[in-house]
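As practice, study what follows.
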Amino acid sequence: MVDEVSPPAALDSPSVMSATATLFVVVLAGIATVVASILVWKLHAFLALVLGALVVGLLTPAAAIENHFVETKAARVVAVDGAGITLERSPAAYPEGSQWLVLRRSDQDGRYATIATASSRPAGKQVLVAFNAAYSPDSRRSGDLLVAPADLAAARKSATENLGSRLAMAFGSMAGQIGILIALASVIGKCLLDSGAADRIVRTMLRWFGERGAPLAFILSGFLLAIPVFFDTVFYLMIPLGKAMGLRTGKHYLLYVLTIVAGGTMAHSLVPPTPGPLLVAAELKVDLGTMILAGCGVGLASSLAGLFWAYRVNARDELPLRDTPDLAISDLRKITERDEKSLPSFTLSLLPILLPVLLIGGFAVLEQKMDDPVSGDKVTLLSRLPELAQEILKLLGDKNIAIGIGAVIAIFVLLRQTRPSREEFAASVQSSLAGAGVIILITSAGGAFGQMLKETGVASLIRDLPGQAPLMLLLLAFLVTAAIRTAQGSSTVAMITAVGLFGPLAESGSLGLHPVYLALAIGCGSKPIAWMNDSGFWVITRMSGMTEREGLKYIAPMSILMGVSGMVVTLIAAAIWPGV
């Protein structure tokens, strides 16, 4: 009798241990290639990730590639107890039928070979498995695999594809998952800026909260705008308002700068459709609505920790207003003295951002399973609605459709407020899509790099950890991401690399927690440490008038505090609601 349970035990075969040592070297070579390409050779992130993927693919042994594809199709034996075995997931999930092959790694070449056959049939919520005589109780081991013959054939065929084909398929797969979302989100962001909607959101927040509440207004505005707009752009938009507040009050300029950073930077790493968290959610198969809701919760908690830091250093130090070559006085006047009558309403300004979030998040809530009081089975709220309502909600709750609706509304706001000519409108949209194209290339290349890492069998490097301490796995993911981020500066590249390392655990079902927690841990790990190799660090210091020393004194510690505080919130939530 087979039950579906969590984490597999470690494989202790000598051939597996030797292969693991080889794969550890391959993984380090891939990460070192990406980091060195960015830091030493100054390559674009897209080229660095493609080069890293090629290095990993070339160094990975053929046996490891074949084993990866086989393991993605199979159910692993994680425990042997007398005549019974325990699998990491039930074979009932496979549609091929009731015939199975039992595989074991060969001590000679490290590949999986067939050692026995089995048949299975469902028995209520369990699966009954009958093995042939070749798989006697004395011969059973943890680490053996059960796989359908058709799945085994498909896996071995995939493993024979050449490196270029595998790389292109992985690139295309990731582009298919995130390409439309990033392009549409970029259109939303550009339209919000050009129509004055973003300006309206910030001004309304400042009016609601007043001068004393301006720091909180900056945090909420920055967080909200950074969901569809990249952090650098959000900072460009908001820093003139921070300067204007500093001029108006004659004090607290440092507080305003830090709160703008605290709001925008956390959404950048935790809330889709920003590219980093979008890719991580896609790789870990986390529902986008779940990722948005969880990212907002952890991100806002981290931003409040940033607010605490901002108040503390502002009470101790003062940042003078200085001339900055990046922002002309005319641009500052243009933003701060714009006639409010020319701006769209606050409700209309928020609609392109909030409506997609509500559609995607609301659909995620409707799809959550709960116990039916009558049958006792797991059902969803969606299943209780009429069929037509279900189809409409599925359409509107689809991530691409929801973001598309937001883009249409944002375009409408732009056309309504500015009435641009056809040429001006075309130029505005084209510029947003041009920027989105670069981000799509980077994230798709990151997906390809992550796939090459998976094909090494990297999951075996940390397979023992989840069953013993799943929270420790989250902490490890945080630390690895933070190390990569600190080394090469890009939070997005750090998240891409980390999810390639830890993603296989979520795919295999051996994580022991809902994968959204792993996504949050990686997102929080992409914050520490902001310093001179980070483009955002230079944007903040140059636009605000900080010196490099002041940036290291104020921005770097705040990035550590926000990342660590977000990680603490994630660990607490994972301990209380591990399954979400």
Observations:
- The chain is about 65% helix and 10% strand.
- The longest strand covers residues 112-123.
